[in-house]
Amino acid sequence: MDSPWELLRDGGDAERKDRGLVLRAVQDEGIALQFAAPELQDDREVVLAAIEQDADALQYASEDLKKCREVVAAAVAREGATLRFADESLWSDRDLLLAAVTRDGRLLRLAPNLELQDQALVLAAVRQDGDALQFASEEWRGDKEVVLASVASSGETLQIASQELQDDADVVRAAIRFDGQVLKFASPRLRGDRELVMQAVKQHGCALEFASEELRGDHNVVWQAVNRTPRSLKFALGGLAEDQELEELARDARCRIQETGR
């Protein structure tokens, strides 16, 4: 026997206008709302029932209900990304935006103007998805707390942080923790910081490419880089790329990595 939503999908006008059938159908499969008659897509109880089952059903609600804060809030509470289906007039509702970015940080892009952005909103977004920093205003790309939260999960966002924070050791240290190669986005001063460069090359030896010339010619720094990533030897300077000890280390490291995977 066909389920209610299958009956609705395969039925005609009578089925699409049958409120009882539509209500049962959307309770079974929320996106079955797409098959309902327009007047039932404008029925708040039906639409809320559909959203309860599948928040994405909001996209099939009437234009009037997409402007209804109660309906949109119900959808966003279940799935932040559904805010994109709401009428654009609700994108300026800060509470809805906050609920949305808490579940999908990239929805920060929906903010119709940058004045809506405050630290709590931007922090919620970048904590959920570090890459949301790209949708933040210039002001927040220069906010240390915001940028620290962003680079903690997506080191490459250091690239779009303010120049001041690209020169902040705490921020760069957090960024290179899981991706040493983002050292390339640090300021020239910090690319010459021995402690930070050591941390970067221990995470990924090829970060050596972005260190200062002085440190690329430092035997201990190059040793750490090669021990982590043998091919990084090609980035060494001062004749170290042809150093016999380091060449032997590179061979041994390749064998170790083949045997152990690290």
Automatic annotation (TrEMBL):
Q: Name one Pfam family in it.
A: DUF4116
The segment(s) forming the DUF4116 domain are 18-66, 68-113, 121-166, 193-236
Q: Which domain of life is it from?
A: Eukaryota
Indicate what this protein is called per its UniProt record: DUF4116 domain-containing protein
Organism from which the protein derives: Effrenium voratum
